[in-house]
Every structure is written in C-alpha cells, then in structure tokens.
Amino acid sequence: MSVAKDEGPAAPGVREQKKRETQRLLTQTGMRLFLEQGYNETTLDQIAAQAGVSRRTIFSYFASKEDILVASSDAGWDDILGDIGRASREEDPLQVVCGCLLQRVSTRSNQDLLALRELMLLSSTLRSRGQAFFVEREHAVAAVLSRVWPEPEMQWQIRLAAMAGVGAFRLAVDTWRDEPEQASLQALAELSFTRLKQLLSAKD
Questions:
Q1: What CA–CA distance (Å, rounded) separates 198 from 148?
Q2: Is 7 exposed, middle or buried (0-12, 13-18, 19+ CB in 10 A)?
Q3: Any idea what the CATH number is for the domain that residue 157 is in?
Q4: What backbone phi and psi angles, to 5 degrees, belong to 150?
Q5: Domain range for residue 46?
Q6: Full-model pTM
Q7: How far apart are the first and last CA of the chain?
Q8: Is residue 33 part of a domain?
Q9: Mean predicted confidence (pLDDT) in 103-118
Q10: pLDDT tens by residue, 3-59
Q11: Number of domains in the chain
C-alpha cells in the first residue's frame, strides 16, 4: 500500500513537466522565428508547425504572439523564485533577492537580451506589458520570501526587500534599454545593487 501511495502523486507531476516542456518549446520556437523572419511576418500557425504541434495545442498555451514574446521575457523567473525559496533563514532577504537576480542575468547573453529588448519595443502594448511585468514579479518575489520568513514581524521587511530588489533591477534594465552599448545588463545590475546597498548603509 505504501508503494501505491507513493505512485499516486507522480502522474500530475509528469503531466506538469510535459506541459512546461511544451510551453518552453513553443516559446523558443516563436523567438527563433521572430528573429529569423520578423515579428510581424510570423504567425501562430507557423510557430505551431515548426514546433511540431497542432494549432489547437498552441492556443491551449498562448492566445497571441504577444503572449509568446512576454513569456520569453519571463524565462528564468521560475528558477529565480525557486532559488529564493531555498534561501537560508540566516541570510538577509534583500541580499537573497539581489543575488538571485544577478544569477539570472549572468545566464543569458547580452546579445539574446538585446534581441528580446528590440522585440518588446515594437508596440505600445508590448511596452506596457513589459512595465507591468516588474510589478507582477515584485509580488511573486514577496510571496516566496514570505514562505521562507513567515513570521508576521518579517512581512514589512520582506515587502521592502522585494520592492527594493526588483526596483533596482528594473532601473538597471531601463538604463541598459536606453543605452545598451554603454555596458552589459549584468554590469548595470551589479552597479544598481551596489548603489542600493550603499544607500541603505548610509541610512543606518
């Protein structure tokens, strides 16, 4: 009976993994086609065909090309949230957030990020969704931090850590977006986090 109980929850896990793999495949295929033949020239049917799935399948994951592009910008955030969730309670919440964000930047090439940046600036709708993205990520980071530090007295500090960490990262992204040739996003993120820490230290 113990074996049966162990096997019970496994099936949903496998299905969820397959779902994530299909979503990742569609996102990667979409980005490749956007870059190869242009965003406006690419259709959802082409993405489905290149990914080897049906039109019905792609609409189970994405309602539009915009959704695929936004999902591409979200790549890596599941890993960030996972890393934050595994943080030691002995660490400082803000240090955890900054460290995990820097790790994310270091895993993506500046060329890939530049290509994504150009695509996200194609329309006002995409630009607006890009701005809303950081607000959503701030709430997600705060939620994960709250699971590591669930004490009520820690919630104020946790919200501030999420706001400050994600806000400093957003400042680096905005600076890099306007002048990407001046420095890499990783270098600007490191600078932004350093200045944030200096500012907080000066207030102590």
A1: 25
A2: exposed
A3: 1.10.357.10
A4: -80, -5
A5: 2-63
A6: 0.74
A7: 58
A8: yes
A9: 76
A10: 343 343 344 478 888 888 898 899 989 989 998 988 889 999 999 999 999 989 999
A11: 2
